[in-house]
Amino acid sequence: MPDRTSRIDFSGLIRDGDLVVCGQATAEPVTLTEALIAQAEDLPAFRMMVGPIFSETFSGSCAPNVSFQSYGVIGHARRLARVGRLDVIPSNYSAFCADFAAHRHRADVVLVQLAEAGDGRLSASLSNDYVIDAARGARLVIAEINPDTPFTFGAEWPEDVPIHTRVAARHSPVELASPPLDDVSRRIAAHAAGLITDGSTLQFGVGRIPDAILSSLSHARNLGIHSGLINDAVVDLIERGAVTNAEKGIDAGITVTNQVIGTRRLYRWVHENKAVAVRPTSYTHGQSVLARINRLVAINSALQVGLDGSVNSETLNGVAIGAIGGQLDFVRGANVSAGGRAIIALPATASDGTSRIVADVETVTTPRADVDAIVTEWGVAELRGCGLAERARRMIAIAAPEHHDVLSERLRGSTR
Question: Which residues contact 211 (CB under 8 A, 6 or more apart)?
Answer without folding.
Answer: 178, 179, 181, 185, 231, 233
